[in-house]
Structures are given as structure tokens and as C-alpha cells.
Hints:
By secondary structure, this protein is of the alpha/beta class.
Amino acid sequence: MIYSQWHEYRLSRLMLGTVQFGMPYGIANRTGQPDYGQVRAIIAAAVEGGVNCFDTAAAYGTSEELLGRALQELNLGGAVIVVTKVRPLTPAELEDGISASRAIRESVDESRRRLRMDCLPIVLFHREADAAFIETLMTLRDEGRLRHAGVSCDNRPGRAVTFAEDDRISALQLPANVMDCRHWRSGVFQQAASHGVAIFIRSVYLQGLLIMPEEQIPLELRDLIPVRRRLEDIAVEAGMRLAELSVRYLLACEEATCLLTGVETEAQIRENIEIIRRGPLPEDMRAAIETCVVGIRDELITPSQWPPRKVQS
């Protein structure tokens, strides 16, 4: 496993996303939530393979609760780093500082309870707008309820650069993948690295669109199929699948602290660990990929703009 040193933590380059533990998630999800036995097996396999950091959130259904239970039963609580997120604030809370601070405090304390941790290693705001109340997280940090604070950003690069320059923010979670390098190209990765801010890359598989069967791609996203086919051709020529190409392409970003991928099965986490061990793609492959993804419309690679889609059970 590849590791990155960040502040007092040595983080595995692969971070396990756990939203699937708490709810059916992603347009490629066809199995729903794994049961607790499967969750425990996935976590054990991840740690066995060298993964020592996990991503969750208050808004991810039962994810925090299941993760906390499994870490305690496996006696791993002190051996891993958990990144969680404050529940999104309501419009009324955003308008009232007292209500917002109370909601943030309650969310952090509930996360501590569910994760069975007195002090949370890393707490992010789930939405950019909520970061207006970063001072509340600073107060909770000073009280010993969390170690580091940050923000999970949307696909637009603008505000992420500002967050990277804020001394109160220690970590940013940003979307990036072979089809969407808007943040990478914006310079925010380099800016964050120069300020000692961790970058956790999410949406590595574009919420599953890069790995789901082509015939199951929703009609409104089918304009991406020609691009995906060209990427698949590059992968096949190199003797790999598109999933491997997608991960190893991002490994070339040295400023990224961790790549976050979610899984639904133990086999998937073992496969992801093996892919990470193979390292970044050769430079000529990365150049070929970049010629394939020019001119993609933003709405096609911005999941928040996709029409709602129910997961099939």
C-alpha cells in the first residue's frame, strides 16, 4: 500500500468510502446495502490490505453506526483514521448563527457517539455553504471533540481555492476522475499542498458511471458513451479494465493525499487495493486519456445535476 504523511497521520493512499454501508448509493448500485456481516468483512479486508482511513458522514444513513460498531468489534478504533461530515444545515439554520452552531455541535456529538470515538480525527462540512460556520468547528477542536476540520466541495473549482488558503481548514474533499479534472486543472491541488491541506479525491468512478454496464447508463447521460468507449479502448490496449485505468490515472496526482472509493463487496475492496499497488499510469497513457475527454459538457459530469434515479433492488 502507498501512504502519504499528513500532519500527525500516515494515511493510506486508498480511503474506503462507506456511504454504501448506510444506504443504496450510486447509479451503478444493483445490490443495495451490504448487511452488517458483509460490512465487517469489508472493513477487515481493507485493513488487512493496508487501508487505514475511512470516509463517512452523518447524512449517510446508518454508515457511522455500522462503521463504529465494526471498528470496535475488530479492535481497530485506535488504528484507523475516520473522516466524517457534519449533517447539511437547513436554510433556517444557515440564516441564524446560533441555530447553526447548535446544529453543528449536535451533529459532531452524534457522530462521536455513533463512531464510538471521543475525538474525531477529521470532520468536514458536507456542503460548501455551511463552511461559513468554520469557527464552530474550531471551538469543538479546542474542546478536544475533533482534531482537524475541512470542507467537502462541489464540482465548481472557485471556492475550493479560497478554502485551501484558509489556515483554519486542514482538509478538502474534491471530486475528480478521468472525465472530470476541473479541480485538478484549477491549481487547487497545488495550492492545498503548499498550505499543508490534505486533498481527498472522491467520485473516482463518477459515482459508478465509469464501471457500470454500458446498456445501463441512463438515457440522459448517454452522450458520455462515446468518450467512455474511447477510454475503454485505451484500457484494453494496455491489458486492463476501465476501473483500473480510472484509479491509476488519478494516482499520478502527487498532491492528492487519498483516493476515496466505495465498495459493496469484499472482493471489490481487495481488487481496489491491488490496483493501488500497481501505481500510476505511464505518461503516454495519461496523455492519450486527456485527448479523449476534451469538451465534455459540465452537466454530464456533475452528479448533483443528474436527474434522480432509483436504485433497483
